[in-house]
Amino acid sequence: MTAGLWQNWVLPGIWITLQLLVYSAALAAVVAFGVGMARTHRSLFVRFLAGAYTEIFRGTSALILMFWLFFVVPPLLGWQLVPMWAAVLALGLSYGAYGAEIVRGALNSVPKAQTEAGVALSFTPWQRMRLVVLPQAVPEMIPSFCNLLVELLKGTALVSLLGVGDVSFAAYLVRLATQESAQIYSVILVIYFVIAFVITRSMKALERKTKANLGVAVR
Amino acid sequence: MNWDWSAVADFMPRFWDGLLVTLQVLVLGSLISFSLGLVWAAAFRAPSRFVRWPVHVVTEFIRTTPLLVQLFFLFFVLPEWGVQFSALTTGTLAIGLHYSTYTAQVYRAGIDAVPAGQWEAATALSLPAHRTWFAVILPQALRRIAPALGNYVIAMLKDTPLLAGISVLELLQQSRLESASTFQYTEPLTVVGVAFVLIAYPASLFVRSLERRLVK
């Protein structure tokens, strides 16, 4: 592969893939915490809404959601949505539903007595969540969130079908330009593997640090 | 919102054709991933690390890279190497291969959960390797494995639309063809999206009940 192909397509593609990953991971985290906490709410109605959200968004394919958000929703609402943002919305909403299950599992794993201790100290429900439950639940979530982030990275490849110039789309362009597939697709697969490897290592380091900090706090 | 029921009716013949292809990919892809996953899982337990190590690297590589790119790799590169498959066969192979790396982890966890005494008992009875696996270990492991495999079948179902990328006539591709000829995107895409929820939700309820019954 020539330097020109790298400079014009592959490197900008990697940059767009990383941007997509960061934006959709941020949205997925907000959705995951919002919906996950709503699934442990006292109100049956709130729990039902959060449960319905999770089932619907986990039940359908992220790619179909992406097409739907690009081709169906904007014309209905009279908006113009660029493919990049349709992709971020689809990935964030879809992977947020998976994240919500991780948050719910971690919140439920904190012993009931911890919440009761918060009640005994006259903490408000929000204080109990913020000061007692979340600090214990977050370290539990990190390994699952690491897997989810790798899944999200793989999910970003779907945007190439909407024509967003990510690294997979770069492979398509290079293939058209060079009429040669083996080399470019091997390179692209290795790029994804390296990004996933960096994510896994960073999350492991974060997990160690978080647990060590918690250990200090407990002592 | 201008919802056109006649567009839904017009789309239905294509929808049923697409559903048939989607289910075909799902069944064959599941069979490939279940059998290949077992091969990977057996290789994870191989005595030689010259077998274990490459298998770990290969499965990890497949698991952490996108199915869509693997799909394009197989679809465009295999013909360059002189191997020609139809888009449907390539898609089914890609999905089966990709998910075999997940099912391998499921098998591994299930096999690891069988108590060590069972292996020792098989050794004490001098059972040959195939009898140890098929008569002692796997029947016990399968109880724990079945629900997790079910979850991956649902995940596979949701990944079948990726095959539209190589023009396999599954549900999404059928809706794209319909939209290209009628310029109506809302109805075909919504019908396909709803169909996925309607198939996936009861399936996930079934897997959950299976989990409650088998894993106790």
From TrEMBL, chain A:
GO biological process entries: amino acid transport
Family: Belongs to the binding-protein-dependent transport system permease family.
Ranges annotated as spanning the membrane: 12-36, 48-71, 77-98, 157-176, 182-200
Gene3D superfamilies linked: MetI-like
Membrane topology label: Multi-pass membrane protein
Domain ABC transmembrane type-1: 14-200
GO cellular component, one term: ATP-binding cassette (ABC) transporter complex
Localisation per UniProt entry: Cell membrane
Any one GO MF annotation of this record: transmembrane transporter activity
Keywords from the UniProt entry: Amino-acid transport, Cell membrane, Membrane, Transmembrane, Transmembrane helix, Transport
UniProt keyword Transmembrane present: yes
Gene name of this polypeptide: ehuC
InterPro entries (alphabetical): AA_ABC_transptr_permease_3TM, ArtM/GltK/GlnP/TcyL/YhdX-like, Ectoine_EhuC, MetI-like, MetI-like_sf
Species annotation: Streptomyces ficellus
Name this polypeptide is given: Ectoine/hydroxyectoine ABC transporter permease subunit EhuC
TrEMBL record, chain B:
Gene Ontology cellular-component terms listed: ATP-binding cassette (ABC) transporter complex
GO-annotated molecular function: transmembrane transporter activity
Record bears the keyword Cell membrane: yes
UniProt entry keywords in alphabetical sequence: Amino-acid transport, Cell membrane, Membrane, Transmembrane, Transmembrane helix, Transport
GO BP of this protein: amino acid transport
Name of a matching Pfam family: BPD_transp_1
Membrane association type: Multi-pass membrane protein
UniProt subcellular location: Cell membrane
Family as reported in the entry's similarity comment: Belongs to the binding-protein-dependent transport system permease family.
Name of the protein: Ectoine/hydroxyectoine ABC transporter permease subunit EhuD
